[in-house]
Design goal:
seven-stranded mixed beta sheet, 215 residues, alpha/beta, globular
């Protein structure tokens, strides 16, 4: 079994641990172009971006190969139904159970086979924008920014309170830094299109460098 992977340096250790097995060869790519020309059984694009050229290349590959994309913020219908979505946000790759969306029947079979080979746990979930855990974390971060915006407390105090009070592994601001605030913003922005509960805090948008967000 050969697995080709395009990932950032910070993602590689967790992927190495998650995807390694005696019968598996990991091949690291340094660009989308190099990823798609590797001869492999599974392809992981952990740096996925919803760009038309990128999705076109990946969907073409997915016609005859198994293609996994770190596409938390989009439904499969938006990016390609043969693509396998997984939660590849920082701090989630190393989790014991992966959240995976595979709406194509062949892709779902391939997911189960690979996870069995790797002796890894996963959960096939509905094709939702934000999946499950990222939605919860994004809303948690957004509420923390609303609290900070109202000058109730400092970021440091909110982080400490959440870790001590809820036993979360990170405080919301610390978690957002690890995940990437741009990823949080992108997900919330997509969710807010259909659900006002996800309306983005002004403080969060400003921290993400967004100058044109409408409140």
């Amino acid at each position: 079994m050969r697995i080709a992977i395009l990932a950032g340096e910070h993602q590689k250790p967790a992927l190495q641990q998650k995807l390694s097995a005696d019968s598996v060869e990991l091949i690291w790519a340094d660009s989308l172009k190099s990823l798609t020309v590797i001869d492999a059984d599974h392809y992981f694009d952990c740096q996925f971006d919803h760009d038309s050229t990128r999705t076109q290349h990946l969907n073409s590959l997915a016609n005859h190969k198994n293609v996994w994309v770190n596409a938390v913020s989009w439904e499969s219908a938006q990016i390609g139904e043969k693509l396998i979505r997984f939660n590849g946000w920082n701090t989630f790759i190393e989790k014991p159970i992966w959240e995976v969306v595979a709406i194509d029947e062949g892709a779902a079979v391939a997911v189960k086979a690979l996870m069995q080979l790797l002796d890894a746990k996963f959960q096939l979930i509905p094709d939702l924008v934000g999946m499950i855990t990222p939605r919860v974390v994004a809303m948690l971060v957004n509420e923390a920014y609303y609290t900070f915006e109202m000058e109730v407390s400092s970021k440091e105090e909110i982080d400490i309170a959440m870790k001590l009070g809820t036993n979360y592994p990170y405080g919301p601001f610390e978690w957002a830094d690890k995940i990437g605030l741009n990823n949080i913003y992108e997900l919330l922005n997509n969710l807010a299109l259909t659900d006002s509960r996800y309306t983005i805090s002004k403080a969060l948008a400003e921290a993400a460098g967004i100058k044109t967000y409408k409140w």
